[in-house]
Each structure stands twice: as structure tokens, then as C-alpha cells.
Amino acid sequence: MAQNSFLSLVRENVPLAPFTRLQIGGPAKYFAEPSDDTQLQEVVSLAYADGIPIRILGGGSNLLIRESGFDGLVVQLNSPAFERISFEDHLVRCGGGTRLSHLVTACVGHGLAGVEHLVGIPGTVGGALHGNSGTDEGDIGQVVRSARLMKRDGQVVQVQSQDLTFSHRRSSLDELVILEASLALKKDDAARLTKREQTFWIVKRSKQPNAPIRSAIAFVDPDGGTASALLHQCGALGMYEGGVQLSMAYPNYLVANEGATSDQVLALLERARDLVYDRQGVKLQTHLVVW
Ligand SMILES: Cc1cc2nc3c(=O)[nH]c(=O)nc-3n(C[C@H](O)[C@H](O)[C@H](O)COP(=O)(O)OP(=O)(O)OC[C@H]3O[C@@H](n4cnc5c(N)ncnc54)[C@H](O)[C@@H]3O)c2cc1C
Predict the structure, then answer these.
(1) Is 154 left (phi over 0), alpha (psi -120 to 50) or beta?
(2) Active-site choice (169, 205, 273, 279)
(3) 225-239 pLDDT, tens per residue?
(4) Is residue 154 lining ligand 1, measured as CB closer than 6 Å?
(5) Most exposed residue of 52, 68, 105, 106, measured as fewest CB within 10 angstroms of its CB?
């Protein structure tokens, strides 16, 4: 009975590659795109009761899916109910499925400063909060006031910033779903903010491969340095494994070409990491989340 309810909410054997920036990897056994919190809660609770593992897919810009795919339920928050943005004075509330680019544009248009430097980072608000995305100008975690989360059993909780920790490309937001976040920004002049955003965008575009190039960040910058400088010093740029290459033009980005596989990505990351460790004694951490 419960199994029938579950199957009515999901699709089976859905290829995940088209949902990711690298466009690599196998299928999800079950895939759901709930229309709102209630339907999300239903599918999560049923999966939890049946012991089915669950993962949340954002924009897929930091994900590597193995060829075997994921033997569980993948949920994507791509319905309008998860993409709402609302303003109250200097606070902005946004759904976890909101495109980060939409959030940035909306805040700048409202004359609110604090996220304009995140322009050009692909993905969703949920993905950005999960990995504390940011630039040299700062991380998204710095402006988080509170977050509404769904636990693995479907229970919804609200957490305040003082109960959260954010560090370089990490957050303590490890409950199942980031449903919504409230960000505290600063009032500023919309025209001035638009100019700042445009400047950040020009710089960002010049430093990253833009779609349709299939790309992903390879390594997290280590303390006191950058992964791209280390890769450069070790002669790793241009290194390749089958159809996957460490970009020559955009250091620290992986580029997937025709025939690329997740095994090749993993092998290339390992070779580059070993090279940097042998030559520079620094152990680089993979930036990509591997499923
Ligand atoms: C060209 C390019 C440029 C980039 N530039 C930057 C940059 O400047 N700075 C930077 O920090 N990163 C950068 N990234 C990496 C990437 O864009 C970020 O990590 C982004 O925040 C990932 O968001 P996403 O929605 O795509 O997450 P996904 O890749 O879909 O998922 C990443 C992780 O977040 C989790 N997740 C996603 N949504 C939710 C949710 N609602 N609730 C709970 N968990 C969730 C997933 O389960 C997964 O573990 C770049 C990537 C590319 C390809």
C-alpha cells in the first residue's frame, strides 16, 4: 500500500547525467519533482519508512554521478513553490530551489547588498548553502539569518544562524533538505549595486568556462593558497584521462569532452592530487560531491 503511494510520486530509472553540468553518470532508481512542501514531505516520509536512501539534486553544477547511478531516491526542487523570493525590509527569504542567479538579480534590483559578488556562480540557493559557495569577496554563509530544513524522516525544523557554522566551502547544513533560507542584507543604491554586479560578472566570466562547456571545479583551495596555482606549478594543467581534461585556459576546472566517464573524472582527480602532493606536499580536497 505504502509502496503504491510512493510509486505514484516518483519516476523510475531516470538518467541523472542531463541534470548535471558535467553530463556524466548513470540513472537514479527513483526520481521525484514534488510540487510543494506537502508532497515533498510525503515522498520523503515514505522513502524513509521503506529505508530508501535519498539525495537532493540542486542545479547539478557540483555533482559527479557514478556510472552505476544512485540506487535510491533523488529529489529535485524545481517547482515554483521552492523558488519563491520575498522581501521584508533588509531581509530576503528564498526557496532552496531558487537559482542563485535569480536571487542575486532580485536583491540587486531591490537595492540590497550582500550577494552581488555571487553573480556567475551556477546552481541553486540550496546547493550554495550546502557547500557555502562564495568568492574572494565572501561566502553566502556570511549573510544567512536562518534556514528552514527538512529532516530525513520528513520533519521540518527552523534553525538560526547562531546554531549554524560555515567555513571554506563547507556548512553544517547537513539535514536532508534546505527548504528555505532567510538572508540579512544591507540597503544600498540599486544603480550602484547593478554596476558592482556587472563588474563582478565580467571578472567571473573571464575566469571560468561558461556553458555549453561541460565543466566543474576540481579542488577546494587549500589554506593560504589556491588549487589553480598549485596545479600550475606542478604542470598539471592540460592533464587528461580519456575524455576528461584539466583545463589549460581555466585552471582548477575539469572539462568533460565526448566520451567522458565518471571513472575518468575520478582517475584524473586522483592523479592530479597525487602529483601536487608529491611535488608540493599539499593534499588537495575534491570540490565535487560524488554520488
Ligand atoms: C563554471 C562554474 C563556476 C563555479 N564557480 C563557483 C564559485 O565561484 N564559487 C563556488 O563556491 N562554487 C562555484 N562553483 C561550484 C558550484 O556552482 C557550487 O558548488 C554551487 O553552489 C552548487 O549548487 P547546485 O545547486 O548546482 O548544487 P548541486 O551540484 O546540485 O549539489 C551539490 C550538493 O548540494 C546539495 N544540495 C543541493 N541543493 C540542496 C538542497 N536544497 N538541500 C540540501 N542539499 C542540497 C546536493 O545534495 C549536493 O550534495 C562553480 C561551478 C561551475 C561549473
Answers:
(1) left
(2) 169
(3) 999 999 999 999 999
(4) no
(5) 68
